[in-house]
Amino acid sequence: MELVRWREERDGHPADTPEADAAARAAGGPLQARIAHRARRLPRVGRRDRRPQRAGLQRARIVLMAATGALVAAFGIAGILAAGGALGSADPVSLPLALLVVVGPSLATLLLWLALLPMLRGGSATSALSALIARHFDDRATPAGDALRLLLLGRGGRWIAASAAHAAWLGYTLGTGAALLILLSVRSYALSWETTLLDAETLAAWAHALSAVPALLGFAGAESLPLRPPMPDGAREAWAAWLLAAVMVYGVLPRALALLVTLALARRALRASSDDLHQPGYARLRSRLLPDHGTARVVDAPPAPETVAAAPAGVALPADALHALALETECPADPLPPDWIWLGAVDDRDSRERALAELQRDTVRGLAIIVRGAATPDRGNRHAVEALRDAAGAPAVLLLAGPVPPARRADWQRLAEHAGLTLGVWPPSEGGDA
Predict the structure, then answer these.
(1) How far is CA 47 from the centre of its chain?
(2) Amino acid 1: pLDDT
(3) Where are the alpha helices (DSSP H) in 187-279?
(4) What are the residue ranges spanned by the domains of the chain?
(5) Which residues does residue 192 pair with via DSSP β-bridges, in sequence order?
(6) Which of 43, 49, 52, 35 is closest to 17 using CA atoms?
(7) Nearest in space to 296 (alpha carbons), one of 409, 419, 374
(8) Residue 248 has what DSSP assignment?
(9) In terms of pTM, does the model score above 0.90?
């Protein structure tokens, strides 16, 4: 659903798909279910009879999985090298230094991510990643390119990027753990807690603190093992097992937990991305997929004693001169009463700014906003209507011109109620009572 909406909003209108529309109407159910059914039934293309959107999503998933796999492999190799450097050729091997080398980078970046998480609302990192990946596609308007942008720049983008980062660091810690296991199995190392700057009591306190979590898993620690050489074979084996356990509990487990959480959040965000049916791409499909949408009875306030003679029935307007304009429609000024001030058609940014400036400059007794009744009252129309109402600072009416489908009438009524406007029709001879 979301991929189809992205493509159709970019084109400015829903694609002409009568067969998919008919299948969605026949399937029945609420609007969201019908939009989903239409997205699944869009025309098939190619010799293999594959739907372009589904094929694009599949290719985008393959690209993301391949990129994540390459990151995991690179970080895994880095972890293996880190483990080899931590053990090195020193004799004895410093346990706190080895633990810091193999676990410190992963744990530090995880804590930094948690600290910055409340500020990571934007998509700068994912935007750069999306642009980088999209360069590999000849046409950025392909379904695969759109699917990549949908996954990386949509609501779940930051969680998908975080999942890739956590998977990479998980590969690092697993690589260090595997390398340590192999090296400690084939070579003999003298392990100890040694320091140059810290005193013995401070180092012992650190050893006891770091041993707390491995002790919960049954591994012996500083409370029962010697900290300095010479160490018997049993103590060296116990400290080697402790080091492996510390890598698991301080490196692998936190990253695995973070990966599971971000994957769940990404899945939730992707599922919720199609819940907002007021987005223009979804709202434009309402009249297609819900032709039997029930009409809403509109009851406006009774007209005031003094109204203009040409005002639509049921819409109360001041007797003084009104300012009138047409919002994204070709409504001519000729049918307007002579005492109305015609501001022209507002169909782009320049004309809107000009109308707002004139409304703010003049003394406005009332404002009539004429719109095409068959149009979809999307978010842009709502913002434009509210901006014009605020600039006028006077009673305003919203007049529907031309034929008005029942579903559109209900949508415009909701917009008018939200903006605090009275709804009517224009001209009155075509619309009847408001």
Answers:
(1) 34
(2) 76
(3) 200-210, 212-216, 233-247, 253-272
(4) 52-272, 323-431
(5) 94
(6) 43
(7) 409
(8) I
(9) no
Q: What are the residue ranges of helices labelled H in 42-154?
A: 52-87, 95-116, 124-134, 143-153
Please list the ranges in the chain whose pLDDT falls under 70. Answer: 10-12, 43-53, 89-90, 120-146, 154, 195-196, 198-200, 203, 212-213, 215-216, 218-233, 273-276, 278-279, 291-321, 330-336, 338, 428-434
Q: What is the pLDDT of residues 316-360, one digit of tens each?
A: 454 456 788 888 776 665 666 767 788 888 877 778 888 888 888
Which residue in this structure is represented by tokens 């975080």? 162
The model's pLDDT over 353-410, given as tens digits with 9 standing for 90+, comes to 888 888 888 778 888 888 888 888 877 788 888 888 888 878 888 888 888 888 788 8
For the chain, the residue count is 434
DSSP structural state of residue 131: H
Lookup result for tokens 């372009």 = 52
In angstroms, the CA 271 to CA 201 distance is 54
d(CA 24, CA 15): 14
Tell me the C-alpha distance between 200 and 205, whole Å.
9
Helix (H, G, I), strand (E, B) or coil at 433: coil
> Residue 18 corresponds to which tokens in the numbers above?
């009568």
Strands 341-346 and 323-327, how do they pair?
parallel
CB 371 within 8 A of CB 402: no
Q: What is the pLDDT of residue 74?
A: 95
Residue 42's identity, in one-letter code, is: L
When the candidates are 3.40.50, 3.30.420, 2.60.40, 2.70.98, the CATH number that belongs to 323-431 is: 3.40.50
Distance CA 142, CA 149 (A): 11
CA distance 126 to 67: 13
